[in-house]
Amino acid sequence: MESLDLKKELKTLYTARKGRPEFVDVPELQYLMFDGHGDPEQTPLMQEGFQALFSVAYPIRFAIKDRDQIAYSVMPPEGLYWDLGDTLDLDAMESWHWTLMILQPAFVTVDDVEQAQKQALDKGIAAAARIRLESYHEGLSAQVMHVGPYSEEGPTIASLLDFIAAEGYRAHGKHHEIYLGDPRRAKPENLRTIIRQPIKGTVSRA
What is the pTM assigned to this prediction? Predict the structure, then answer.
């Protein structure tokens, strides 16, 4: 049985330091994705999306293990968030668009996803029908670790944006969060979330 450790292979993308932003270059990767809109803290669609993602990710993992003799762990959930500007308006979350994601090994196919969706739908998880497999390329980004409740991410996000500007870049693209903690088990003050922001170009320092 072959073993695949995606967290180890992509260590720089799934580890970060609190209070110490750093740059990462994110290659093109493929994810299970689920789209939504509205305040993530208020809409029930958010939890439906996470449930749907896991209801598809685990059957894929089991199928790959049985068929190809490759064992790997399901990766942590992630989220992309955006509105009309280059940075999120934290005071207008109701206008946000978002995509929930779980990273998939490169050998996972659309057929694997469709078979897993059928299993989830048979179990009554209707939102699984909205899952898709898609590649996403962020490229050069800056990231930092946030420790604490999701509702208190504001200062961490601000410090990351300050770091980006101080280094001569500007935010570009979708705000990205990687949820390393499980809110069902961990205390809010102990939750760990990687905050990532793609960047581009350089800005004038004049």
Answer: 0.92
Other CB atoms within a 10 A radius of the CB of residue 1 amount to: 7
Question: CA 165: distance to chain centroid?
Answer: 23
For residues 143 and 160, the answer to whether their CB atoms sit within 8 Å is yes
CA gap 123, 172 in Å, rounded: 40
In this prediction, residue 135 carries a pLDDT of: 98
Identify the pLDDT of residue 189: 85
Give the pLDDT score at 86.
Answer: 60
Three-state DSSP class for 197? strand
pLDDT averaged over consecutive 10-residue blocks of the chain (206 residues)?
Answer: 92 95 97 93 90 97 94 96 77 88 97 97 97 97 95 93 95 94 78 95 54
C-alpha span between 78 and 31 (Å, rounded) = 10
Q: By the 8 A CB rule, do 88 and 82 touch?
A: yes
Element (H, E) at 67: helix 45-68
Tell me the residue ranges of DSSP E strands in 7-50: 22-26, 29-37
Q: What is the pLDDT of residue 204?
A: 47
Beta strands at 175-179 and 77-82: parallel, antiparallel or unpaired: antiparallel
Give the integer Cα–Cα distance in Å for 76 and 104.
Answer: 11
Cα separations in angstroms, 93 against 48, 81, 88, 202: 18, 10, 8, 29
Question: Quick one: which of 93, 86, 104 has its CA closest to 39?
Answer: 93
